[in-house]
């Protein structure tokens, strides 16, 4: 969806002296660079500086400086100018900019420019104001209503006040219900007030991109169909067959990998054109080109020609040909044969998209080692299907759940794809908690569950690697373990379980299971402006996936942009930043060291298992302990046993 964002920044002397401008610059650079990276032609941005000593705007209103006009897409050079301008702001001598108070006029100016620029165009309009003065606007209710009639957007007020300012304003009654900012935010739909510290926290927190559901499968789920009808893709016979049940379904990916930053492959040219230095790097062609070279009957003549041309410094030139003139040949003896199209098509097994259930089994009988493939959610097709498809699909899922069974199916994702054998696992997701945070009223009250089948690929026999282990329960030897040994093993298991739990990077016990799923109606977001979400805390959101590599790359680019491009630091002296503390605590459970109880458990575990501590080596790569040095010298001088003895040691009885 198209959107326009107008940034209004209060650059009064109080904001500069308290370093609020530098703090908001961190969020502003993060937001603008993200918009530059996406380069959307429908994402418009402008920027105003209020309470400024200079005047530059379309209506020549005093002390309002238009730093960036409304343009899309935003360029990197424009982000550089905005950052340099904000970094160069310093307190003025002899001029008290706190008395200007031009935020109200800047709000009116921004709303008028947005209306004149876009008129009645359907888009999201938003004005984001950074200030620490809650008395900066004095609008009556009638004036607010008149403004909202002209401006069909929302306001985002960023509270930049310090703790002392908040205490002072609360005691004086400035932040009461009669405050103009609060009345404006409450009357304008979608408007909100956020703190500057929350926005800065967003820059240090990974924000995984919202995965839009992309349909990867569309076809029929068939039960009781004949394989001959499947191969011929005879849909009419499947429908007319009384013993075949056909349900129109669609599939969405349940897992999606997060790629790194966008990269472009370029080749470096050694020869640089003095007139155009951009020719130093060129983008290679992705289209494959074919060339043919002249062939000679006699090898001697061919070798002499190549030798002669290489001595002159010129290689034989090839003649380019079209890809349509190239045919695939098959080796037959010492020659190559090109098959006609009618015979070549028979080499491939034609498949049609569809899911065919071949049988059912108890869900406890399926080995868990098979459930490791990329999963796909199979749902009833609501776009091309009917009510009968939804009803029959729901009945199938409910029946599988009641009988605790799963289905084994033949799965073809698209035309011409390989045939896969998969397991269909039923799942019923409750949407009651999703409706509490939902802003869409299309969900009916009786639709409290979403029924789906998770499809997981099963390996074929040639793909499976089986390891036969001795089963303790089926051991024919007499069990000689005493009660003390059982208690000791149970103690070891408990200590090891606590140690493994202490290394976890998540807190699954504190997160309700319903929060691991998100209804697809809630996924599309209407703005690219990073704002804190009020539904689930960032520290308890299981969807907050930590893809460290893309996040670290973005942090390095932001720091490089600020220090090298804005501040002019030498690129050779640039050092990459360290990951934030909250990220280190997430990816490294022992970042702050284990607790005392955990240390006691580790000591008990090492003493019971008889684990030996690894000796510490000094800087000259020698052992510090005398006994360790003696043992190392003994191991070095000891001769290796013969091969027959080694094979005898490894032979099983």
From TrEMBL:
Residues 318-476 form the Ku domain. Its main location: nucleus. It is found in: Chromosome, Telomere; Nucleus. Its EC number is 3.6.4.12. The keyword Secreted does not apply. One of its GO terms (biological process) is double-strand break repair via nonhomologous end joining. Keywords: ATP-binding, Chromosome, DNA damage, DNA recombination, DNA repair, DNA-binding, Helicase, Hydrolase, Nucleotide-binding, Nucleus, Telomere. GO terms for cellular component: chromosome, telomeric region; Ku70:Ku80 complex. Coiled coil: none annotated. One of its GO terms (molecular function) is telomeric DNA binding. Belongs to the ku80 family. This is ATP-dependent DNA helicase II subunit 2. It comes from Maudiozyma barnettii. The lineage of its organism: Eukaryota, Fungi, Dikarya, Ascomycota, Saccharomycotina.
């Amino acid at each position: 969806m198209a959107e326009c964002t107008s940034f209004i920044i209060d650059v009064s002397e109080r904001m500069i002296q308290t370093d609020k401008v530098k703090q908001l610059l961190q969020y502003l650079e993060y937001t603008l660079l993200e918009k530059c990276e996406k380069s959307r032609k429908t994402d418009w941005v402008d920027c105003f500086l209020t309470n400024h000593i200079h005047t530059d705007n379309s209506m020549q209103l005093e002390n309002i400086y238009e730093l960036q006009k409304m343009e899309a897409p935003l360029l990197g050079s424009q982000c550089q100018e905005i950052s340099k301008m904000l970094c160069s702001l310093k307190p003025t001598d002899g001029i008290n900019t706190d008395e200007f108070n031009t935020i109200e006029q800047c709000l009116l100016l921004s709303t008028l420019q947005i209306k004149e620029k876009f008129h009645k165009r359907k888009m999201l309009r938003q004005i984001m104001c950074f200030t620490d003065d809650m008395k900066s606007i004095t609008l009556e209710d009638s004036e607010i209503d008149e403004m909202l009639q002209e401006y069909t957007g929302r306001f985002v007020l960023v509270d930049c006040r310090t703790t002392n300012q908040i205490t002072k304003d609360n005691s004086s009654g400035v932040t009461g219900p009669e405050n103009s900012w609060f009345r404006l935010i409450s009357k304008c739909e979608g408007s909100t007030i956020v703190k500057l510290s929350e926005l800065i926290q967003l820059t240090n927190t990974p924000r995984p991109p919202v995965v839009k559901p992309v349909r990867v499968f569309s076809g029929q789920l068939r039960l009781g169909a004949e394989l001959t009808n499947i191969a011929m893709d005879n849909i009419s016979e499947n429908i007319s067959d009384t013993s075949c049940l056909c349900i129109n379904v669609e599939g969405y990916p349940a897992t999606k990998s997060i790629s790194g930053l966008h990269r472009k492959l370029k080749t470096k040219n050694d020869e640089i054109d003095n007139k155009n230095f951009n020719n130093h790097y060129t983008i290679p062609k992705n289209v494959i080109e074919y060339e043919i070279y002249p062939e000679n009957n006699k090898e001697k003549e061919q070798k002499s020609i190549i030798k002669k041309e290489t001595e002159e410094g010129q290689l034989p030139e090839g003649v380019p040909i079209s890809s349509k003139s190239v045919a695939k040949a098959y080796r037959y003896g010492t020659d190559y044969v090109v098959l006609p199209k009618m015979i070549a098509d028979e080499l491939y097994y034609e498949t049609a998209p569809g899911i065919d259930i071949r049988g059912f089994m108890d869900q406890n009988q399926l080995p868990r080692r098979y459930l490791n493939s990329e999963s796909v959610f199979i749902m009833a097709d609501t776009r091309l299907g009917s009510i009968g498809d939804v009803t029959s699909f729901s009945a199938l899922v409910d029946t599988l759940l009641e009988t605790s069974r799963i289905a084994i199916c033949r799965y073809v994702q698209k035309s011409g794809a390989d045939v896969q054998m998969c397991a269909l696992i039923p799942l019923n997701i409750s949407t009651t908690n999703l409706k509490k945070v939902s802003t869409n009223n299309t969900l009916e009250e009786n639709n409290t569950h979403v029924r789906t089948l998770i499809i997981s690929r099963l390996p074929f026999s040639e793909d499976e690697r089986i390891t036969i282990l001795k089963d303790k329960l089926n051991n024919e030897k007499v069990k000689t373990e005493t009660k003390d040994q059982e208690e000791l093993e149970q103690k070891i298991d408990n200590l090891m379980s606590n140690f493994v739990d202490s290394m976890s990077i998540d807190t699954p016990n504190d997160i309700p299971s319903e929060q691991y799923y998100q209804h697809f109606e809630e996924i599309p977001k209407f703005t690219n402006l990073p704002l804190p979400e009020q539904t689930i805390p960032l520290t308890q959101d299981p969807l907050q996936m930590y893809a460290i590599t893309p996040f670290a790359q973005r942090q390095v680019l932001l720091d490089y942009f600020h220090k090298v491009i804005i501040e002019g630091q030498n690129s050779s002296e640039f050092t990459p930043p360290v990951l934030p503390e909250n990220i280190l605590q997430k990816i490294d459970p022992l970042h702050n060291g284990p607790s005392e109880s955990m240390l006691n458990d580790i000591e008990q575990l090492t003493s019971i298992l008889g684990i030996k501590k690894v000796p510490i080596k000094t800087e000259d790569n020698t052992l510090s302990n005398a006994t360790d040095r003696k043992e190392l010298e003994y191991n070095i001088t000891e001769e290796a046993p013969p091969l027959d003895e080694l094979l005898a040691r490894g032979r099983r009885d």
